[in-house]
């Protein structure tokens, strides 16, 4: 009995796996047999996926551009002109001893002068003024990177130092930028939900039409005792194929858009002395998009198929 039960159980698993394989290939073949309708469905889903993905990528690049993000936390101390190296190092040492300071970078007047001489619009003025006079007028600059937390105490201390001429920290600008980024991220999330529901409806309507065109075939299978899972399985794989193709097309659209914008953006950034370039999705994110789109198509097909099969179930006499 045990051997017979084991054999029966193995045969059931084999049949179940075989039907999954058949449903996978048959659903793909059915989608390819209607190329025009399939392309329309895939294109609509791809656009619904590409819009929130593109906006999310834009936000990621903006967050990177807006100071690379550490620069937005940086406090800049302009020491008084004429502060010598020993005094500058003393200020650096006192700041580094604080628990709320992560790093202090010193920019000497010589470094500032060298950077200014690289710019054509300033080099001529420096030549007229003289390098020595320009160097004497430039102050030592300290770029302080604070640790996370309240930095008001650090700013107060920096302003009270006798060597400090001016402290620059645009907290208001940074707060506004972070608020806009948070708002934009929430907007992208809302759009992703709405457009995801739209993609579900597109897949569901396509599968519903397919079920109606095969109503007689499905009715015969149900009369023969086929389970809902057996009947529904090919339609679930059909939805997954639609989702996978739509995810691939959405990634292709984003890649084409990134390629079209890359050079103009690089030219614009170069005029501001930046090497900023658009960053695309990494391989893990690409895989997540494809898997998520496939699951979205599977879910859309599953929601519609169960309802349609219950409505089309033949009544026994």
Automatic annotation (TrEMBL):
Swiss-Prot/TrEMBL keywords: Cell cycle, Cell division, Cell inner membrane, Cell membrane, Membrane, Transmembrane, Transmembrane helix
Family annotation (NCBIfam families): FtsX_Gneg (TIGR00439)
Name of protein: Cell division protein FtsX
Chief location: membrane
Residue ranges annotated for the FtsX extracellular domain, each copy included: 75-163
Subunit structure: Forms a membrane-associated complex with FtsE.
Leader sequence residues: none
Subcellular location: Cell inner membrane
Top-level division of the source organism's lineage: Bacteria
Function: Part of the ABC transporter FtsEX involved in cellular division.
Spans through the membrane: 36-59, 179-204, 235-261, 284-306
Pfam families attached to this UniProt entry: FtsX, FtsX_ECD
Family per similarity comment: Belongs to the ABC-4 integral membrane protein family. FtsX subfamily.
Domain ABC3 transporter permease C-terminal: 191-303
Topology in the lipid bilayer: Multi-pass membrane protein
């Amino acid at each position: 009995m045990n051997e017979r039960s084991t054999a029966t159980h193995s045969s059931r698993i084999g049949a179940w796996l075989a039907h999954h394989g058949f449903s996978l290939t048959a659903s793909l073949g059915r989608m390819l047999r209607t190329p025009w309708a399939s392309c329309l469905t895939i294109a609509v889903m791809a656009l619904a996926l590409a819009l929130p993905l593109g906006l999310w990528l834009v936000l990621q690049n903006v967050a990177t551009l807006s100071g690379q993000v550490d620069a937005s936390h940086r406090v800049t101390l302009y020491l008084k002109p004429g502060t010598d190296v020993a005094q500058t190092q003393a200020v650096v040492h006192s700041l580094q001893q604080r628990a709320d300071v992560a790093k202090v970078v010193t920019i000497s007047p010589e470094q500032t002068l060298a950077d200014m001489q690289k710019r054509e619009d300033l080099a001529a003025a420096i030549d007229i003024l003289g390098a020595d006079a320009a160097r004497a007028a430039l102050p030592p600059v300290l770029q302080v990177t604070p640790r996370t937390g309240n930095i008001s105490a650090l700013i107060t201390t920096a302003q009270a130092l006798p060597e400090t001429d001016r402290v620059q920290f645009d907290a208001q600008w940074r707060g506004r930028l972070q608020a806009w980024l948070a708002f934009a991220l929430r907007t992208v999330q809302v759009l992703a939900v709405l457009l995801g529901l739209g993609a579900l409806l597109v897949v569901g309507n396509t599968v519903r039409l397919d079920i109606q065109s095969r109503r007689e075939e499905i009715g015969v299978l149900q009369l023969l005792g086929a389970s809902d899972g057996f009947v529904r399985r090919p339609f679930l794989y059909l939805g997954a194929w639609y989702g996978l193709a739509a995810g691939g097309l959405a990634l292709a659209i984003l890649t084409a858009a990134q390629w079209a914008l890359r050079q103009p953006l690089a030219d614009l950034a170069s005029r501001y002395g930046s090497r900023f370039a658009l960053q695309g999705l990494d391989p893990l994110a690409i895989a997540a998009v494809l898997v998520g789109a496939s699951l979205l198509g599977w879910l859309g097909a599953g929601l519609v198929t169960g309802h349609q099969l219950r409505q089309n179930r033949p009544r026994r006499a």
